[in-house]
Design brief:
about 475 residues, 3 domains, Growth Hormone, Chain: A, mainly alpha, about 80% helix
Length: about 475
């Protein structure tokens, strides 16, 4: 299934306005996620809440986003990508303001759910709009810029969030996002004059969307609770429900997700699978190494954060370069090289011990960041360039879903290793040897996943005709 010929926007100002809108949306998503995580202890103290309820401040946001991505991608293809992007930004700005006024942990979680929905609407349409307005020859470059914006948000979030929490209070993190969202709304209304809807007039598959939502919730909640048996059963139930979803989508005339993209489009299917594997192999690294630096190496949280920033800085610097390179060289070649470099970085990092120097860890993190940058932008370019115009929203939503599912799987692997080697006990000096072993084992599993991912990345086939 090849991408069909399209009419791209010839107005240079409108095209670059679309890039600014997409980049700001790409920045806000990880910035909001990473900045609020640093404030969770302070939020817990103010509302006097337990750790389980507090964890839902972050989990509710991720769940709502994961459930909403694919349905809103389809709605954007039907009703217009700019329209969905605009309303997503309105919801994000409004719920950010309301979250800053929360009076309890429950009210904050409620607003976070709708904030996640808004973010899903933004993320499901940003890349789709760029793919609609920029031709294939320029697509990799602009996608690389938006991917760099994602990593900038990841890098800035903990530091900005920590500073705001310390000096202005945790509510300021939400309140500062409201005017940022408002500025994007003004830009959309002022500069983006066109509208892009590749599946206008089609119906929306409500039943399929509900099945998809239930499947994602069951899988993500179950995976986050591993190795508990009930959680494992819930995760398996989610996988089974996803099978029901795939079956249903083949029986409806206008599905919310075109299953044929996976069965008949090798480039799309293998690129999405490579993305899922890559995020599964890399997301948990930050969690594991930040704990390792503080528990085993004795670094203060601020110093550990300075070391951890090495990875997103490399991603930010090299993502635009990798995206631009994928406009000239087959994306699968660059993405596969990036995945191979990531595998090497994970293998090196899996050798950490109490005697490992901070310099070695920084070098490994820089290697991971470089490999991630080479993989992400070209892989995104391959996904978006392999589908027809009417599937841009679905494809963009699929990328976000692969990211979120990969993140949950990665954390599930890390949590499972802790449960196997340490058990459900607090990490004390007596547990440090077992903790180090759990970290090394998890990193080895991540490396193995990434090596398998290289195969799928290389086997996806060529995007461009010979």
């Amino acid at each position: 299934m090849k991408a069909e010929s399209e009419q791209y926007v010839s107005n240079e100002a409108e095209r670059w306005s679309a890039l600014v809108v997409a980049s700001l949306g790409s920045f806000l998503t990880p910035f909001m996620l990473s900045s609020i995580n640093i404030a969770l202890p302070t939020i817990g103290q103010e509302f006097e809440t337990d750790a389980v309820l507090l964890s839902w401040v972050a989990t509710s946001y991720l769940l709502a986003a994961a459930v909403s991505l694919v349905p809103f991608g389809k709605l954007a293809d039907i009703h217009g990508r700019k329209k969905v992007q605009l309303w997503g930004m309105v919801i994000f700005a409004l719920t950010s303001f309301l979250a800053g006024l929360s009076w309890s942990a429950e009210s904050l979680i409620f607003f976070r759910v709708f904030q996640g929905v808004g973010i899903a609407m933004i993320f499901a349409t940003g890349i789709a709009i760029l793919t609609s307005v920029f031709p294939l020859a320029e697509r990799g470059r602009v996608i690389g810029i938006t991917v760099a914006a994602v990593y900038s948000g990841l890098a800035c979030g903990p530091f900005v969030g920590g500073w705001l929490t310390q000096h202005l209070g945790w509510r300021s993190i939400f309140l500062i996002n409201a005017p940022m969202g408002l500025s994007v709304i003004v830009l959309i209304l002022w500069k983006l004059k066109g509208e892009w809807a590749g599946a206008r007039g089609e119906s929306f598959d409500i039943i399929g969307s509900l099945i998809y939502g239930l499947a994602v919730v069951a899988f993500m909640v179950g995976a986050s609770g591993l190795p508990d048996l009930w959680s494992a059963a819930l995760a398996l139930g989610g996988i089974a429900a996803m099978g029901v979803f795939a079956w249903w989508e083949t029986r409806v005339a206008q599905p919310v997700f075109e299953v044929r993209l996976f069965t008949r489009n090798r480039v799309f299917a293998f690129s999405c699978l490579a993305a899922l594997i890559h995020y599964s192999a890399t997301f948990g690294v930050t969690f594991l190494i930040s704990l390792f630096l503080q528990y085993i190496k004795g670094f203060a949280p601020q110093d550990a954060g300075l070391i951890m920033i090495a990875q997103p800085v490399m991603m930010t610097l090299f993502s635009p370069f990798a995206g631009k390179l994928s406009d000239r060289i087959e994306p699968r070649v660059i993405a596969s090289l990036g995945m191979g470099i990531t595998s090497a970085g994970l293998l090196l990092l899996s050798t950490v011990s109490a005697g490992t120097s901070a310099g070695f860890i920084i070098a490994c993190l820089m290697t991971l960041g470089f490999g991630f940058a080479l993989f992400s932008s070209p892989n995104m370019n391959a996904i978006m360039s392999s589908v027809e115009t009417k599937y841009y929203g679905i494809a963009s939503g699929s990328v976000g879903t692969m990211r979120l599912l990969g993140q949950i799987l990665s954390m599930a692997i890390a949590t499972l290793m802790f449960a196997l080697f340490i058990g459900r006990t607090q990490i004390t000096p007596a547990q440090y040897p077992a903790f180090v072993q759990s970290v090394r084992t998890a990193l080895l599993i991540f490396a193995g996943l990434c090596i398998c991912g290289v195969y799928f990345s290389l086997s996806r086939g060529s995007l461009r005709e010979k």
